[in-house]
Design brief:
Layout: E1 7-9, E2 14-16, E3 21-22, E4 29-30, H1 31-36, H2 38-53, H3 66-77, E5 85-89, H4 96-105, E6 113-117, H5 122-130, E7 137-142, H6 149-174, E8 175-179, H7 185-193, E9 196-199, H8 213-221, H9 226-239, H10 249-262, E10 268-273, H11 279-293, E11 295-297, E12 303-306, E13 309-312, H12 323-328, E14 333-340, H13 365-382, E15 387-392, H14 397-418, H15 426-438, H16 450-453
Parallel strand pairs: 3-4, 5-6, 5-7, 7-8, 8-9, 10-13, 10-14, 14-15
Antiparallel strand pairs: 1-2, 2-15, 11-12
Helix pairs in contact: 2-14, 3-8, 4-8, 4-11, 9-14, 10-14, 11-14
Length: 456
């Protein structure tokens, strides 16, 4: 029997799988199932590396994209000196990664304001435009294809807003398009109208694009250490370049999640960071995991309709909402905790305490957060509910970059384990086509169901 390592340790991240296995946890993964699947995991690793070598999976090489970062800095330097507010127009992968960076690292900036608009709520958008100064504001429209209807609708209104207030020149100075380097509606429009542009590599999908200009340009504007993010991602890429799951944290995590689903019937998979700064990371992960792995057909074209359901949770907040379900609800969940060893703050409890709270004397909020995360993991374990834990030293540019790459690699490996294409999203297109038809876009009339035609 293989001796399974409880921990895989790197400089920026430690994976602890102690509470993922039975018999330690009654409902956990059987060690024999894990050992039997090691060959499958190595094959998944080789399948992903083959696609990397053929230049299909561009996300793998984004941590070394120094030329793109130089281009982003140049575009930043071309903005009018009056601009101190950047409004990012995008949705899904065009927004979630940037929001994650802002929440984790960007809140110390006082020089610049950064706003993400990732919905088409008309009230929200109208109020935004009513409250911004066009002379001090630039817009970054992000869409790889240029055909995303939500982003297109945001863009045309922002375009009109700038033209009305500042004229054609003011519009061109304050609108940056991040899109495909050579094709698509937004690329063509940017060329026609003389807009500044930044590339999304053609071999990088939207939900894997956070380490491209999609995430890094807004971060640069917000005075974030983008070089540190890319450095951390590069270190994690090196750690994920081993075919042995016992030495590759992302491959091992992919295998644990895959076995939790296929062998333990735990197809609801929770990401629960114990840090408010990492809450947006959980939301970013939901899109990455769900859109990549939820597929109708496998690589052989067989109908399989598979995919684990990702759920975001926040420690300790969701101990008072979702945890009851995790503890006593259906035995269909696998929880991945994220702990921060050093929150860079302690919040020491005072000596002057009411009698009811004397037990807190000499301790701190940081110590309580750790006690809460450990207590939750072991309470779940005692109830026969498995989990794993990722621990980072601190929330820094390097550790955030490492987390981004870890989850992207984990997703790629999981797709290979399931035997599906983790890099397309055909199910998303059907709803878009109906929306296009309802909005009168030529060529999509037949996509509209008869029941909707009556009302439109």
């Amino acid at each position: 029997m293989l001796k399974i390592a409880e921990r895989i340790m790197t400089d920026l991240l430690t994976l602890n799988s102690e509470l993922a296995f039975s018999p330690q946890v009654q409902g956990g993964i059987a060690e024999q199932d894990y050992e039997n699947a090691l060959g499958q995991a190595r094959a998944a690793f080789e399948a992903v590396q083959k696609r990397v070598a053929s230049d299909e999976l561009g996300f793998w090489n984004l941590p070394q994209a120094d030329d793109d970062l130089s281009q982003e800095k140049a575009v930043l330097g071309q903005l009018p000196a009056t601009v101190d507010h950047l409004v990012v127009l995008g949705i899904g992968g065009s927004s979630l990664g940037g929001r994650t960076i802002q929440r984790a690292l960007g809140q110390k900036s006082t020089k610049h304001q950064l706003t993400f608009v990732d919905n088409i709520d008309p009230h929200q958008f109208e109020k935004l435009l009513e409250n911004i100064d066009p002379f001090r504001t630039a817009f970054n429209v992000i869409s790889k294809s240029g055909g995303t209807i939500e982003t297109a609708s945001q863009f045309v209104i922002a375009r009109d807003f700038l033209k009305r207030h500042l004229g054609e020149e003011g519009y061109r100075e304050r609108m940056i398009a991040t899109t495909d380097p050579s094709q698509g509606a937004l690329r063509a429009l940017a060329a026609d109208e003389g807009l500044k542009t930044l590339p999304i590599p053609s071999n990088v999908g939207g939900r894997f694009s956070v380490l491209s200009a999609v995430g890094t340009f807004p971060a640069l504007f917000n005075d974030v250490d983008v070089t540190g993010i890319l450095k951390g991602a590069a270190q994690m890429r090196d750690a994920c370049s081993d075919a042995d799951p016992e030495n590759n944290p992302a491959l091992k995590s992919a295998l644990l999640h895959y076995l939790a689903d296929t062998q333990c019937h735990r197809n609801i998979q929770v990401l629960m960071p114990y840090s408010s700064r990492l809450w947006e990371l959980a939301l970013w992960f939901v899109q990455l995991w769900g859109e990549s792995l939820g597929k109708k057909t496998n690589d052989q074209g067989e109908q399989v309709e598979l995919g684990p359901t990702p759920v975001p949770a926040l420690g300790s907040t969701d101990q008072h909402s979702q945890l009851q379900l995790f503890m006593e609800g259906p035995q269909d969940k696998f929880v991945n905790f994220i702990e921060v060893a050093d929150h860079q703050a302690e919040c020491v409890f005072p000596d002057d305490l009411p009698p009811a709270y004397e037990y807190l004397r000499g301790s701190s909020m940081a110590r309580l957060m750790k006690a809460e995360s450990q207590g939750t993991a072991w309470a779940l374990a005692n109830a026969g509910r498995p989990s794993m834990c990722l621990t980072i030293p601190q929330v820094t540019a390097e550790t955030l970059g490492a987390l981004f790459f870890f989850f992207e690699a984990q997703t790629a490996f999981a797709g290979a384990l399931y035997g599906i294409n983790a890099f397309d999203q055909p199910g998303v297109e059907a709803g878009k086509h109906i929306a296009y038809g309802l909005m009168g876009r030529e060529g999509f009339e037949d996509a509209v169901p008869a029941a909707l035609r009556k009302d439109n």
